Amino acid sequence: MLRKKTDHMQYLDGMEVIESNLMEKVLAAVKEYDNDGFSNRDVEKALSKELLSLEDYAAILSPAAMPYLEDMARKAMKETRKHFGNSISLFTPLYIANYCENQCVYCGFKATNKIHRATLSFHEAENELKAIASTGLKEILLLTGESRYKSDLVYIGETIKLATKYFSTIGIEIYPLNTEEYTFLHHCGADFVSVYQETYNTDTYEKVHLWGSKRVFPYRFHAQERALLGGMRGVSFGALLGLDDFRKDAFAAGLHAQLIQQKYPHAEISFSTPRLRPYKNNAENGPKDVHEKQLLQVMLAYRLLMPYAGITISTRERPGFRDHVIGMAATKMSAGVSVGVGGHSEEQKGDEQFEISDERSVSEVHQMILSKGLQPVYTDYIRV
Hints:
Structural class: alpha/beta
Order of helices and strands: HHHHEEHEHEHEHEHHEHEHEHEHE
Number of helices: 14
Low-confidence stretches: none
CATH architecture: Alpha-Beta Barrel
Oligomer: single chain
Number of strands: 11
Shape: globular
Largest sheet: 8 strands, parallel, barrel
CATH topology: TIM Barrel
Strand content: 5-15%
Helix content: 25-40%
Mean pLDDT: 93
Number of domains: 1
CATH class: Alpha Beta
Distance between the termini: 40 Å
């Protein structure tokens, strides 16, 4: 386990370096972004356009846009219905391990946090997959802590193969990989990769990632591009809102996703909007100045920047907020969630990464979606 404070902008041995200038473009744009440099007129001009420029996107993320949330919501809903109809996709996460070799100050899985650690055996993993599949869900997100030693590539690959027996769409949220490793997991059956930069402020990134391989900012930044080069169908972007200036982080995440879409037009792009949450041994962890109105602003801005991108709303948020944003901006939501290791077929085996706010079952979420005149979607892809 690497515990010394290495240079957070330098690659470690074994980390693949790809030819890409996207990080430099994003960091340069963020450096120029001034939250307070926009007026009501700038926001109104942006909202009058069919397609947003980067300057327009910056405007609708600024404090000047807060009085225009209703206008943004109406425009966002129009775009969401145009590209996604009334459909809301359902999935659930399955944590198969919670061992981690990183020291990230905001995370319940961090290496020094005294929690119960566990890894599901293949038998236990299959029981979990069966239990989740019995609810009707056909999309699964497999997660681990970031430990190559405790959750190695072969283990993850074999668990993905088990998942293909029960699910038509399989996503992974694990430690970043090299291109050939993503190719291996894609051949095992993985379709999508979620990697969140947490914060795009490199100074803050260094301060909150004390040691471990996650400390290396550029390797994490280029993970989505390596995943696509490795054959993955889609990738997800996002920042952990509340770690730093959430507007700048959302601006960076949106630009990052847009640049990837331009470079890889075939890729399916999605956003997630997680906020800081309390975790075991740290009940005070919270998202600073990111309240629900600010979170809504970020989601609406993502929708208006990239009308065709998926947006996921997680169980970090309270049920009322989740119900409000589906169909308006969000197109996918989790249901029947456990964020500990296992916990679907029997008692969970390892402690949670964070506290969730929405504990509703799949059937309860299904009925809520119907009550809003929307259509729950369990399968949008057939594996052949």
